Amino acid sequence: MGKRPAGISIIAWIYILISGISLVSSLILSVYSWPLIIIYLTIFISAVALYLGQKWAWWLMATLAMFMLIRNTSALILAIGNSSDVTGIGQYYLLTGGKLIFHCLILIVLLSKPAIQFFAFQKLNTVQRLLILFAVCVAIFSVF
């Protein structure tokens, strides 16, 4: 494992901060939704592991980014189809579009050559990784 790319550090710290703040605020505000607390905790642990260069954390974070990319794309398509029924649709487009760009950038960083070298992936190429991520997300959507 080589030197950690800056993009990996940035992604890890973003997720550490977001999940940490979400976890603490859920506990302070006494909003005990155990599934959400488990999700925030999992993302926090995964972000720390991503920072440390664990391969499983790369797979989990890449799957999360792909999942959110698919989810927000489908939400945007549905909103476009029902735009006449929704007030404030422009704000929704902006928010969902921002999420799409954010998760797309995360995937680009995670699939970049420096990240792949840092995590020492050598057996799969980028297309194979994307197909695996897409298949896992389709399976998750099928279950839920």
How would you describe the overall organization of this protein?
With 144 residues, the protein is mainly α. It has one domain (6-143). The chain has six helices and no strands. The protein has helices at residues 6-28, 34-52, 55-81, 89-110, 113-118, 126-143. Helix 1 (6-28) runs antiparallel to helix 2 (34-52). The longest helix has 27 residues, at 55-81. It is globular, with a radius of gyration of 17 Å. The mean pLDDT is 86.
Which structural category do the helix and sheet elements fall into? mainly alpha
How many domains make up the coordinates? 1
- The whole-number mean of residue pLDDT values reads 86
Beta-strand portion reads under 5%
How many beta-strand runs? Answer: 0
The stretches of 5 or more residues where confidence is low (pLDDT under 50) are none
Helix content, binned percent: over 70%
Shape: globular
Secondary-structure element string? HHHHHH
Short note summarizing the structure:
The chain has 144 residues and is mainly α.
Keyword list:
single chain; mainly alpha; 6 helices
Write the layout of secondary structure elements.
Elements: H1 6-28, H2 34-52, H3 55-81, H4 89-110, H5 113-118, H6 126-143
